[in-house]
Fold these 3 entries.
Entry 1:
Amino acid sequence: MKRYLPLILVAYFIGCLLLILVLARQWQDTGQAPEQPIAFSHPIHAGNLGLECTYCHQTVARSPQATVPPVSLCMECHKNAAIDRPEVQKLRGFWERQEPIHWQRVYQLPWHAVFNHKRHIKAGVDCSFCHGELKAQARVRQVRSLMMGWCVSCHRSRNAPTDCWTCHK
Ligand code: HEC
Ligand code: HEC
Ligand code: HEC
Ligand code: HEC
Ligand code: HEC
């Protein structure tokens, strides 16, 4: 037994180290809420004004990507609406310069993993299950770590495919 003690200790420390690394990544990945070029508000647009998610994220139910709308869609209202607000004036600046807005991504898988919105929407998974309640997020904040274990455990419980190549191409 004594002979193996150093080995057991080393294994124990490596185990702890791995655990800390994994936890640190989970912690780092969730909760991030990058500052955006314009302070767009889901509580105002999806909450107070009651716009459907698909009014802006138009491809979410029919393609892998949800997509964020172009400035022209915002301008359908903001040629007139709330034009006295500084953040709306910023928006109109982008429009006048014909400049796209570079929104910071909040949810992003690493390059080797693929996701597909359409398939999840078709399967009846609600946006809020993965993105939280947007109506309550003044600034979009990542509420799920998007770790593989989370994806796979739901796939297992819902009889969705769990082969490696389902999510890795
Ligand atoms: C099963 C979990 C899940 C559900 C349900 C889901 N999403 Fe997503 N969403 C993700 C993941 C994962 C990413 C990151 C995808 C990537 O990096 O390729 C993402 C990214 C996004 C993005 C940014 C990238 C893009 O695709 O344009 C938007 C916008 C978005 N989701 C909106 C929505 C909306 C709106 C709904 C509901 C109609 C929804 N999502 C439902 C998991 C989900
Ligand atoms: C269907 C009409 C409509 C669309 C589309 C729309 N907005 Fe708005 N938006 C409004 C209205 C109305 C208000 C004022 C709401 C209020 O005062 O409660 C507003 C308010 C705002 C504000 C000011 C918020 C504040 O706190 O002062 C910003 C910034 C904004 N919108 C940005 C955008 C952007 C960016 C888009 C496109 C992605 C967009 N809006 C699309 C109707 C719209
Ligand atoms: C008026 C247009 C509009 C509506 C309605 C709207 N969104 Fe968005 N959404 C945006 C814009 C613009 C962004 C990018 C800026 C930001 O992150 O705040 C965005 C960002 C997001 C993101 C983060 C994307 C990323 O970078 O990973 C998610 C998730 C999302 N929206 C989900 C939803 C859901 C769910 C609903 C319905 C409850 C909804 N949105 C309704 C315009 C809209
Ligand atoms: C709420 C449970 C749930 C979560 C969480 C979830 N999925 Fe899914 N996913 C499903 C279901 C159910 C299907 C099957 C839909 C069907 O049968 O068409 C599916 C289908 C898919 C598909 C299409 C499979 C195919 O046959 O091509 C991909 C890709 C995928 N998921 C990736 C992911 C990734 C990556 C994550 C994590 C970031 C994730 N999913 C998280 C439930 C989930
Ligand atoms: C339902 C979707 C899904 C399935 C099925 C899946 N993965 Fe993943 N995998 C992911 C996602 C999402 C990530 C990125 C997040 C992370 O690192 O946990 C990932 C990350 C990884 C990584 C990188 C880990 C890291 O720390 O960067 C490896 C290696 C990997 N997967 C291997 C596999 C193998 C092998 C299988 C088959 C046994 C598999 N995956 C099945 C979704 C999936």
Entry 2:
Amino acid sequence: MVNIKCHREKIDVNSRLLILFPVLLLLSPFSFSAAADQSGACSAFVDVSVVPVDREQVLLHQTVLVRNGRIVEVAPVLDLKLPNDCHRIDGRHRYLIPGLVDSHIHLPLSGTADQLLVLQLLLANGITTGINMEGSPEIVALRDQIERGAIVAPKLYTTGPFIQQPAFMTADQVRNEVIAEKKAGYDFIKVHGELTQAAYDAVFETARAQGMRVVGHVPSNLGINAALGRQALIVHAEEFLYSYFQFHRDLPTDSAEIERMVSGISKKALLSGTWVSPTLSVFRQIIFQAADIDALLQRPEMRYMPRRLTTGAAVGATDFGWYPPDNPYVKRWPPEKIPHLRAQYFVMQRLVKGLQQAGVPLLAGTDPFVPCVIPGFSMKDELEQMYEAGLTPYQVLQTATSNAARFLGSDNDSGTILRGKIADLVLLNANPLIDVDNIFRQEGVMLRGLWFTEDELQTRLATAVSVSTASVHP
Ligand SMILES: [Zn+2]
């Protein structure tokens, strides 16, 4: 069985490098640093309900004081006198959660204007950190600019380019690549698709020596046991279909058998220490594309996706067009195949619930630029699908906040609302522990202490769309 999502043909990276830097200079006056004059200032969410996510609780009537980009105090509103210089944000009847992390994004490689649009889409949806799952030198440079504060945008991590066939067939090729990726400054090694046993072994041996973690797909020729305990993260629940549930056999359909298999692999996964990012919504969306592509292309949020970004070329995947006749899923999956895809999805849902029940840490990842997956907006779909699979709203919220910080090794700095943490925060007008959709009833987002109201986010988004649309591309 072939992985239904990720067949990608590469386009030339060098041709993109040429266009990036002139565009960057052109755009530097662009207002992505509009809120920079707040830096160093003091802000306070006053009388807010805090969902700290270090425990399942809502702390009522709190003041959260932020200075120099960090949370300096969380205390009952009556106990805390506001400093005079502090910008006051009304928290009454509102809920404060940590900024969200999308653990599986893809930034376009078609120039800075497009990258800034995607980053703005993330921010406007409460996402303050993203893990880019296919890196390039431009994205390392962008990550570093954000880190330095030259661009105000969600914090980035990035894997290197895919380690996959046919570019990487031998252990030697893999060794050289892992060493080169470490040198180039990537945060993770990404494996993708099938690999020979020798090449796959060489990934881990070299990555360990280089102090890097390996994330990605599971080579479906080798099976799930080859990956557990070695990959830090498996980036799709779908990988378990090909490397486990359907590994040298048909998809199980008997529900007792599915439950037995789920329970067995969940226990194994827990003991192995490997994390899972289910990316349920992208698979579900592929079923929708096969069923009714027009409905997806007519969603209101499609107005944020300039047509050029929907051809696949912008993310280096020429066979990833969104619109028919280029949409690969419409081509590949005639309506009579939909019941099979639904049966696969049912197994993935059972798996996600089983992994959660066993205690395997899960991450919310969305895989934008797979056709019809819109960056930022895709987070709402993913959190809804994890809830539908059987996680509680609190468990869902953890996958996008505290779990992600633990995975990234940044839990001293982020993922929860506690004194000393970086002030990446989202203000909501409804309780996220009652309904996961409330996570997207947003009043504003704070990014490293910079406060953006919902109106400001929408204005910035509209600007980013028009700059991207007007920008010149090769
Ligand atoms: Zn991906």
Entry 3:
Amino acid sequence: MLPVEPDTNRHCFAPCQPGTFCKCLGQWIQATLEEAPIMSDEDRLEMEAQKPHPWQLNPWHPMERPIDKKHIGKLMEELGECSSAAARCLIQGIDEAEPVTGKINREWLEDEIADVLANAELNMDHFGLDRERIETRKVRKMEHLRAWHGMLE
Ligand SMILES: [Mg+2]
């Protein structure tokens, strides 16, 4: 049976060996008396010096709050839908229609761009993103891409 991470009830990926530092548990695993090597104070100090800092054990901290997940998840979903609409325009043409529903690709792309913009606004508000920084980058990106696209005309 694998050890269980504290506070998560998740099992570690591998068993931790006695006398080693278990990254999953974030602690040294005690060796039994039979297994324990005889260590000098110098060895013990060296072993402590090699012990990873807590942030090295788990540098990633995924979102946990449901409201954060809802905001970022919905943005991701709409980005995917916008990508699908853009791909359809590329493949079929922007003024062609979806064969079953008859919806014009241009309208679908407009709808999905609107959904992305709406969710981008909500995410900027929710996470307190720097709107000035975003606007500056957006303007710079548009200038860069206009110059790039202009080379094809
Ligand atoms: Mg949508």
